Amino acid sequence: MNARLNARDRLARLLSVIPWVADHPDGVAIDDVVERFAYPRNQLLDDLQDVLFFVGVYPFTPDSLIEVDVSDDRVSIRYAEWFARPLRLSSEEGARLLTAGRSVLAMTDTGDDDDAASPLLRALTKLGTALGEGAERAVDVRLGTAPADTLGVLRNALARGVQVDLEYYSYGRDELSERRVEPAKVFSDQGNWYLSGWCHRADGERVFRVDRIRAAVATDVPVERDEPSVDGSFTPSNDDPRVTLRLRPAARWVVEQYPVEAVDDDGDTITVTMAVSARAWLERLLLRLGPDATVVDADAALGDDLARSAADRILARYR
Amino acid sequence: MDKLERLLNLTAALLHAETPLTAEDLRERVGGYPDGKATFRRAFERDKDDLRSMGMPLRVEPVPGVDPPVDGYRLDRDEYAGIELAFEAEELAALHLATNLVRLDGGDAGLVKLGAAGAAAPTDSVGNVPFSDALATMIGAAADRQAVSFTYNDTERVVEPWKLSFTRGHWYLSGFDRLREGERLYRVDRIDGGVSLVGPATEPVGDVTEPIDLRGWELGDGPAVDATIVVDADQAAYARHILGEVADRPDGSVTATLEVRNVDAFRSFVLSFLEHAEILEPAELRDDFVAWLEAQR
Questions:
Q1: Is the entire prediction scored with pTM above 0.90?
Q2: Of A179, A249, B61, B234, which residue is most buried, by most CB within 10 angstroms?
């Protein structure tokens, strides 16, 4: 709210502000405009008094200008007939709102039909009529494949403020573990559900993918820590070993998909350095990339023959 | 004159005009433009772009009674305002809450236009969904039954979008491909460059497969091959979760049959289990998998 808005942003707001204020013959409180239209107060006052005051149509005689009156923290607007109705939503803006709304419906889908009366559903129906006949089916959002009962247990534990016992499959480490976790947040990011919270086993804040939780049981033990600070993203730890890979162009997606620390792209090959939080993760990546990746350098902690030893373990099954 | 004042006067002039106004007319009637002909033209073009980017349906029409013909501009008030949405306060609040709960990459200018920017207390978001302008264009096109063109796999495509689906972390477009004359599916993040509207859709909307539960190995152009894999007991629950239908074996492991159209994606999927899974059949896929691993020793 503190950032100054550019001319285009201010125009977009004013085209809605003007008809809304003009619709109230007795004027409206400046604070209402500030809040409804996310319009920084000082800028709004400047724009109303120094700009809108001079807006009108040719020949700009007093009778062809908008009348703006600002006093006592209120504003009223008259004679703005060209701006009697707000500018419609663009199709892109409508698409964004529709997508956000459908995502929330996907998130809160309870399976019963009581939602038919929800304000969100009504809003989306109205929005759909403005966007076109195909709006009803234009967007479909699935926020993740987490089992509903696991999500239910986690959300319930979160609401009650109790700890949970998890049986968790750690994909990176390729191991199954039992953990006591103090849930801090359940959220969906890029199509997966996550639980963040304090993990007693790790003695630190951790993020868990909900679809890798084998079993979740709520306890009656209240949470002891209530200052979560974990966000969803993977942050490499300074202690993690590093690996440097040379990638062919076909493996460029690695740079886009994983956090990399150094990238050297000569157009032909890409050299990247990444933190390795777990060896199994690197093994999978290398095996998958095959000829598209070469290990240039790896910290001693990772050992030698990374891809080779993993390939041997798998091949043992096929002999 | 402040640029905002000029843009407001320009919008008012365009809405006020009964007949199209030429650039020269507008220069005179709006004021605030630079003097030189070339600099005026540049400023005027930028202003038009600004108005269009906000969704103003700027009409370009020949000015009547002028010879030689000259293009003029105006805004039709009904087109400008569109259908009146008449949201109730609680509906606006619900939309506002939705955009707080689910963050879409990019902005949400729509809320400002609706005057719903601050209608509810800020909330901690519980969802992030990738989003882009190209996606918004395609969703708008699907809703309004417009065709779009874009580059995909180095080929220019003209598609009538039916549905945009976000599933397993990716956006997919399904629709009618005019060049291939049939229903096709695209990964939106593999579209190269921008998406443009190319006029109204003409084909009826087909039956979009429901639900679109795509898996990489099913996305390919080749014929489908049924492949059977076994996943060990310690990863069985995970496999069941990913694959849905699996068959239990007495030792706790599970088998599953996959419809494979994309061998690379299938291999990557099986590799994700490391030594905890095995391809049972067919022999070709088993051999391909072994050859791939042998090459890395």
A1: no
A2: A179
Count how many residues are written for chain B: 297
Q: Which of B1, B18, B21, B114 to mutate to test the interface with A (most CBs of A within 10 A)?
A: B114
Query: Is the CB of residue B9 less than 8 Å away from at least one CB of chain A?
Result: yes
Q: What is the mean pLDDT of chain B?
A: 86
- A261 in Cβ contact with A242 (< 8 Å): yes
Q: Give A309 to chain B, closest Cα distance, Å.
A: 8
Helices (H) then strands (E): counts for chain B: 10, 13
Tally DSSP H helices, then E strands, for chain A.
10, 13
d(CA A81, CA B81): 13
**DSSP characters for A196-224?**
EEEETTTTEEEEEEGGGEEEEEEEEEEPS
Where is A244: in which H helix or E strand? Answer: strand A242-247
Q: Which residues contact B158 (CB under 8 A, 6 or more apart)?
A: B147, B148, B149, B177, B178, B179, B198
Contact yes or no for B58/B75 (Cβ under 8 A): yes
Q: Does B283 touch chain A (CB under 8 A)?
A: no
Long-range Cβ contact pairs of A245-249 (< 8 A, separation 24 or more): A245/A271, A245/A272, A245/A273, A245/A274, A245/A293, A245/A294, A245/A295, A245/A296, A246/A270, A246/A271, A246/A293, A246/A294, A246/A296, A247/A271, A247/A272, A247/A289, A247/A292, A247/A293, A248/A291, A248/A292, A248/A293
Which of A7, A56, A291 is the closest to B4 by Cβ? A7
- Residue of chain B whose Cα is closest to the Cα of A91: B140
* Strands B102-104 and B127-129, sheet pairing: parallel
Q: Does residue B225 belong to the interface with chain A, where contact is any CB pair within 8 Å? A: no
Q: How far is the alpha carbon of B8 from chain A, nearest alpha carbon, in Å?
A: 7
Q: What's residue A232's pLDDT?
A: 44
Give CA–CA dist A78/B274, Å, rounded: 72
Q: Express each pLDDT in B142-199 by its tens digit.
A: 999 999 999 988 889 999 999 998 876 788 898 999 988 888 888 888 898 899 999 9
Q: What is the pLDDT of residues A122-166, one digit of tens each?
A: 899 889 888 888 888 888 887 766 666 788 888 888 888 899 999
List Cα–Cα distances, B18 to B62, B72, B82, in angstroms. 13, 11, 18
Nearest residue of chain B to residue A319 (CA atoms): B290
Using CA coordinates, name the residue in chain A closest to B2: A51
Amino acid B244: pLDDT: 74
CA nearest to B177, candidates B196, B160, B154: B160
CB contact under 8 A, B106 and A96: yes
Neighbours of A174 (CB within 10 A): 20
Cα(A300)–Cα(B60) distance, rounded to whole angstroms?
A: 68
